[in-house]
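Need a sequence for this fold. Nothing fancy.
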């Protein structure tokens, strides 16, 4: 942890978001190669089916395959929104954009997901951002603009498609961060299964050759890592940091994508990308260092998410010492004041 007492920033959710970003970052350059043979619907479907297949053994090991204890109407609506927007629409829009632009350019346009998440959070999801936080968002936006100006007219359509994909994922980020009736693994498995099946069926009926066995296996493996493990790690981080701040860290994925594009596709890095990296680091610093504290009330609730017992909200006992862990637990009514971010426990309207 950074800091002491009740004023701290836990480094563990930050590490989770960075790992999620690295895994997701490799999806664009790897998918660029697969799109030479597969249509976008087939590839999107296989990627998400790969995510579900990769998580299936985890569900069995944790005894969560048939158990959905907190899947009430509210959580079902959020999960449906995540499936439709984040699992079906978002990947299709991204892959169509990827067919018409370099993998490194599309990777960098994905920075718009940060802006979409922040703006949607402030407007629709009670996701507080102060002046420092908004400065971080604007810095990230400038970073994205610097990277896209040199593309010219040919980049307008791919940029628009990628931007629409980011808007879909912005909603998805908030929906998944607020799902508290099932575990992160369960929500990702369900999302991948439904979204993957729908897109694969659509892709099957489109013109073109059927995907070969080797391509199917490669796509499933890529999906298991980039769309399965990555999403789980992001959800675990977002439940602790809030969707916007987790998205700031997760937005390093485009830069991982550029690195992978250079290594595996022999694409070059421009000076504009170097400037953007510097701006992006500044944006992360501004978002993480924002201070937000006031007196607030917590209502009685029962939910499931990753947590630890030194954050003023989780004081239930375990037979043995545990750090970060996940299970269903209950909170009593309490009122207090401490520095906080818009996580599952702090979704409230507050004016500066």
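Here you go.
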């Amino acid at each position: 942890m950074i800091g002491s007492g009740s004023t701290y920033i836990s480094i563990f959710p930050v590490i989770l978001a960075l790992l999620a970003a690295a895994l997701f970052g490799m999806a664009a350059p790897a998918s660029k190669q697969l799109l030479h043979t597969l249509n976008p619907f087939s590839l999107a479907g296989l990627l998400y089916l790969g995510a579900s297949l990769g998580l299936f053994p985890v569900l069995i090991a944790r005894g969560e395959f048939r158990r959905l204890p907190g899947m009430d109407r509210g959580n079902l609506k959020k999960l449906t929104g995540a499936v439709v927007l984040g699992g079906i629409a978002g990947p299709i829009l991204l892959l169509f954009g990827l067919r018409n632009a370099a993998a490194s350019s599309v990777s960098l346009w994905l920075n718009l997901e940060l802006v979409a998440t922040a703006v949607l959070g402030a407007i629709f999801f009670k996701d507080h951002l102060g002046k420092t936080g908004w400065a971080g968002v604007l810095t990230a936006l400038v970073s994205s603009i610097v990277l896209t100006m040199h593309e010219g007219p040919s980049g307008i359509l791919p940029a628009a498609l990628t931007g629409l994909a980011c808007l879909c994922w912005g909603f998805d980020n908030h929906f998944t961060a607020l799902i508290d009736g099932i575990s992160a693994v369960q929500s990702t498995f369900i999302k991948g299964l439904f979204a993957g099946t729908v897109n694969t069926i659509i892709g099957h009926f489109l013109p073109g050759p059927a995907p070969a066995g080797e391509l199917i296996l490669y796509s499933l493996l890529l999906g298991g890592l980039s769309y399965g493990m990555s999403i789980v790690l992001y959800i675990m981080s977002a439940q602790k940091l809030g969707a916007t701040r987790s998205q700031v860290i997760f937005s390093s994925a485009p830069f991982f994508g550029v690195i992978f594009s250079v290594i595996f596709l022999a694409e070059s890095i421009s000076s504009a990308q170097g400037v953007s990296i510097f701006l992006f680091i500044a944006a992360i610093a501004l978002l993480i260092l924002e201070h937000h504290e006031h007196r607030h009330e917590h209502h009685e609730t029962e939910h499931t998410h990753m947590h630890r017992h030194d954050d003023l909200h989780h004081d239930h006992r375990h037979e043995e010492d545990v750090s970060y862990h996940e299970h269903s637990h209950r909170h009593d009514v309490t009122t207090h004041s401490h520095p906080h971010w818009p996580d599952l426990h702090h979704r409230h309207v507050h004016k500066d």
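For context: Residues 11-294 form one domain.
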